[in-house]
Amino acid sequence: MRKAGAVRRGALALTLALVVTGVAFGVRVAADAGSPAPSTAELLGPDYVDIRTVPSGSADPEPDPGSATGTYTWDCGRNSNGHRNTANVVVVPGMPGPAHHVHDYVGNLSTDVSSTVDTLAGGGTTCANGDESTYYWPVLRTLSTAHPGHDGAGTRPDGASASPGAEHFGEIQVPVSLMLTFYGNPRTPVVAMPSLLRATMGDAVAITNGGARAQATWTCSDTPDRRTTRYPVCAPGQRVLRVFDFPSCWDGRRVDSTDHRQHVVFPSAGGGCPAATFAVPRLRLVAAYDIAPGTRYQIDAFDGQRNSPLTDHAFFVNLMPEPLMARVVRCLNSGEACDDKTTPVG
Q1: Taking the C-alpha atoms of 77, 79, 81 and 85 in order, what is their torsion angle to the nearest 10 degrees?
Q2: Radius of gyration, CA atoms only, the chain
Q3: pLDDT tens-place string over residues 112-149
Q4: Predicted model pTM
Q5: What b-and-e string marks burial along 38-59, b requiring 16 or more CB atoms within 10 Å of the CB?
Q6: What SS3 class is residue 335?
Q7: Quick one: residue 7, left, alpha or beta (phi over 0 = left, psi -120 to 50 = alpha)?
Q8: At residue 228, does pLDDT exceed 70?
């Protein structure tokens, strides 16, 4: 009898345990069923954001009388000729860079891993107006749908552990359009850039460098006033835009500096240049890409930077012929909207 009672008590305990488990499971299922479905950006990961959730930015400052309010736009193609390599003629002239950090180029056709700024003149150009400057930035890649994307841990598409640099993969995307525009300054007239002036924007090592120098700007073609430092998820039919705004306050003496930044700096929040600097034409480069919503994409980045959008950056070396630079300055200072877009080479 004692044995039978023990069996009945054990069965009762098992039944109660199953009931409690079932209730808990039911509560969890009900909670999951009532939770909102994750957004496309949430599914893609923390580096992505739905552009509709990004607030609009502030408007440009009102210009002062007599300031440079004009614009100058020209066409250097969109790198449809595939001019790419790992060089950085500003930071490490004459040397190749890491194989997993590839740059797209427009402008000067001769820029390669053996180039220095002194070898660029006469190298030909993709720019329709004869501008021989070189403009470059990291390539953008789409990731295979079979692989959810780079997870920051060096994982290969097949899931195996990767050696340093092996996490960089994906099909390089050619911009569907690329716009170069010079703007003036809302406080003063501008002066000409000197030949071989080098300028950079953004920080290729922003993740490990603290982010203070980051200038990454991403948006979508239908929401240009909504800007973010993350990869935007755009509405169907809209393009992903990378906006590169360069510094435009020159010290009047140097064409480069030790950190490639001190000789030409950004204007203040009001648009004016700091004391002892002079306003030069302000370059904005906008690259547009066809990226379908739900597609993972990323830029090439150095190891340790997680292919983060925050590390986006770009460079240029000015080699505009002096008469062309003089035309740019006249357009900006006179308030004209000048357009030298014809047929580029690449």
Answers
A1: 150
A2: 26
A3: 999 999 999 999 999 999 999 999 999 999 997 544 44
A4: 0.84
A5: eeebeebeebbbbbeebeeeee
A6: coil
A7: alpha
A8: yes
